[in-house]
């Protein structure tokens, strides 16, 4: 299972979905899917802009958890 930590990271910075979408120029739906952990795929470009925004590594944003 892949765990997305976007909701936690947004909460720590008091950002909402609209804030992240505007700051990254990502589609609001893309941010929403990642926030709710319902995304079926993620582009490298999306990961890159989110990592830049949150000043983190990819591993801080997503995590593989063995089931």
Automatic annotation (TrEMBL):
Q: Which GO terms describe its molecular function?
A: DNA binding
Where does the HTH cro/C1-type domain start and stop, copy by copy?
6-61
Q: Out of the domains of life, which is the source? A: Bacteria
PANTHER family registered for this protein in UniProt: DNA-BINDING PROTEIN, DNA-BINDING PROTEIN-RELATED
Recorded protein name is XRE family transcriptional regulator
